Amino acid sequence: MPEFEYIAPQSFDRLSERIAAEKLLGVDTEFMRETTFYPELCLLQLATPDRIFCADPLGLSETEIDVAGFWQTLADRRWVVHSARQDMEVLYLTAGLLPREIFDTQVAAALLGYAPQLGYAAMVAELFGVVLAKSHTRADWRRRPLPREFLEYAAEDVEHLLPACEVLSERLSKRGRLEWARQDSMDLLDNALYGADPAAAIDRLKGARNLRGRARRAAEALAAWREREALRLDRPRQWILKDAALLDLAMANPANAADLSRIPGLPPKIVKRSGNELAALVAAARTGTDDYEPPARPDEAAKAVLKEMQGRVAAAAARLEIVPEVLAPRKELSEALTGARDLRVFRGWRREVIGQELLGLL
To answer: How far apart, in Å, are the Cα atoms of 264 and each of 16, 248, 260, 268, 273?
Structure first.
């Protein structure tokens, strides 16, 4: 088990001083979000070349510590993370900051031919022959005091990050891909990935992309309403209104609030609490206008082009000895086929490797 130092909330200022001299930190988080909209940061793990810290943020707001100063000190360091997206989200929503630079070891491993979703334990086993127990993946991280075994598990999650960064960076450098890993890692530092935008809520509503006209307008309004309610109440979206019920409501076109009770899947408590508001949103959608058109189904010619694109991506990936998905997943190729150009495959190193070729084909 790795040695670590537990940092209580009232000692965060001391931790700030301890990391101020470090240029590179291994970073991981433990958080909970099963019952909330926002992820709740429950533990922050930091690794330096010779120390591991398990910092407890619960109760931090009740102290007189300069929290803003700590977060800024942390953000000013370079981070090594593994599968960073969720960690970036929880830290951004907690502190309102993202680090100036990260190196994602999962991203780096994928550029060396490992599986795109390679887990941390699998990476550690591959690189160092160390088998991690991973025995507390379902732990209640709000529990206080945290059991010793929880903290040991958490410390393991950063113990090998800096050594992995060193090994992966050396291998990538030999193959001329270190800058690729840096580019792909930095893509995760886009604030837009982590903020909640009610106006864009329709984009994550499964089944809505093929709606049109009044039903589409109603679904947009209802999805935005659900997002605002989830934010206001700090509850998961599906707790507010399930996707299926939202789509049923958008397509049913009820004449008034009384009609809502006849829509399958719409919970009576929602009808009672928010029926008038929901009926008004659907009614407003009857008179609106929009220029949204559902994505056209590809014809035979388009399917042939998509197949050709996939073949060229697969060939380029084979030459690089990486998984084709790392170059360009099928979803991205389909979007390119319908006219999208602000795609990762057309930017950075991918543009030179395959993107320019695909643009020529398109």
So the answer is: 54, 7, 9, 10, 17
- Give the CA distances from residue 77 to residues 2, 19, 21, 39, in Å, rounded to whole numbers and listed in that order: 23, 9, 9, 23
Instruction: Report the C-alpha gap between 258 and 359 in whole angstroms.
Output: 53
- pLDDT band of residue 293 (cuts 50, 70, 90) is confident
- 275 with 260: CB under 8 angstroms? yes
**pTM of this prediction?**
0.91
Residue 150 has pLDDT above 90, yes or no: yes
Q: At what angle do helices 12-19 and 67-75 cross, to 10 degrees?
A: 30
CA-CA-CA-CA torsion sign (298, 301, 307, 312): negative
Report pLDDT for 13: 83
Q: Is the model's pLDDT at 162 over the cut of 90?
A: yes
Token pair of 64 as six digits: 């007189």
The region of weakest confidence among 16-20, 59-63, 352-356 is: 59-63
Least confident of 148-152, 192-196, 246-250: 192-196
Instruction: Assess whether pLDDT exceeds 80 at residue 63.
Output: no
Q: Using CB atoms within 10 A of its CB, is residue 313 exposed (0-12), middle (13-18) or buried (19+)? A: buried
Q: Strand 101-104 vs strand 78-81: parallel, antiparallel, or unpaired?
A: parallel
Chain mean pLDDT for the chain: 93
Q: Using CA atoms, how far apart are residues 251 and 234, in angstroms rounded to an integer?
A: 27
